[in-house]
Amino acid sequence: MKHLISTADVTREEAIRILDIAEEMREFGTREVKKLPALRGRTVVNLFFEDSTRTRISFEAAAKRLSADVINFSAKGSSVSKGESLKDTAQTLLAIGADAVVIRHPDSGAPARLAATDWIGLPIVNAGDGMHEHPTQALLDAFTLRRQVSLREGTAPHGKGLDGLKVAIVGDILHSRVARSNLWLLNSLGAEVTMVAPPTLLPVGADAWPCTISYDLDEVIASGVDALMMLRVQGERMHAAYFPNPREYSRYWGLDDARLKALDASGEETLIMHPGPMNRGLEISSAAADSPRSTVLDQVTNGVAVRMASLYMLLSGDLIKES
To answer: What PANTHER family does the entry give (predicted)?
Structure first.
């Protein structure tokens, strides 16, 4: 059975293939009739044990544009809230005729467990699990980066990686599944990654990751980077004082108006990215979020295309490694 659980399991060739197909899917999204019959008769279940309007809607739009039927399952108000196990919930979905499951779960490893067992035997897509990974977010970030660089250079993106690009991932690395998925994928695609954060927001063992660690955002900006990927400060996952106060965090690690002006003065074509939702005024200022450098809205648009490509490849038997 084939799944998309972790970007660490996706080879460079597989990643480029997903991105290339996503380019075709994005072009279909600009047409008057946006639907493709590729998955007609298939049923995709969005199994969300954790709230995420943005990701759920993106997967729903992706499946529907491929002509699949979609069932949205929320843990709140369901049998899960009454104590039903993941296994029983999954087998219920199999019994109603699901062909693939997109799962978001607060516990790290839940999608991997669902994929590794013989409970349902369906393709599993990880839509975010705890502080572990969020592979389709990393894919859409890479897609956005590759597309923006190709537009700048006037070249076609197909078949290309991100070789030589310098990407800084900034902020709450400790709690971020987006940071982890991006790290593995960006490395596979040939980018150079720098993690920028206060020491308290870096996980134990981060010094062994294939990246450079920095505590100084101004120094990283001055050194020149192709993209700044700002991360949301995840207050809901913090149960201790990881930094003195929001004002100090913004001063040292936020992309504020002063740092935006420094970027503009540098002459660098640095892109500003954010996976959303944004805490404006904390990790990113409104001026930075809305500047011409910002790819935030492009990332949302590209998310549908990348998720279309992922679902298509999984359900057509064209991806990924056997788990």
So the answer is: ASPARTATE CARBAMOYLTRANSFERASE, ORNITHINE CARBAMOYLTRANSFERASE, MITOCHONDRIAL
Per residue in 231-270, pLDDT tens? 999 866 556 677 778 888 999 999 999 999 999 998 889 9
- 194 appears as a binding residue in the annotation: no
Domain residue limits, the chain: 3-133+301-317, 135-296
144 is in an annotated binding site: no
Segment 138-181, tens digit of pLDDT: 999 999 999 999 999 999 999 999 999 999 999 999 999 999 99
Question: Does the annotation flag 276 for ligand binding?
Answer: yes
pTM here? 0.93
104: closest CA among 140, 72, 63, 67?
72
Q: Binding site annotation covers 26?
A: no
CA distance 84 to 92: 11
Tokens 């990283």 correspond to what residue? Answer: 220
